[in-house]
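FIELD: query
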Amino acid sequence: MKKSYILLSIYDKLKAGKYLEINECCGEFGISVPTFRRYLSFLRDYFCENFSQEIIYDAENKKYILK
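FIELD: result
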């Protein structure tokens, strides 16, 4: 899959209020954990700069969510 498609898919999930789990996303998109982390870092910066929102890690559920 193309990077742009993956980033937009992750963006859509976060905007819809869905949680992201690392292994689930990596399996769905066929990417490595370091690649997932890079994409999430990019989206963290984007949401912070443009929407004043944060992507946070929910340690209890071991998932990421947009706040």
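FIELD: remark
Residues 33-51 form the longest helix (19 residues).
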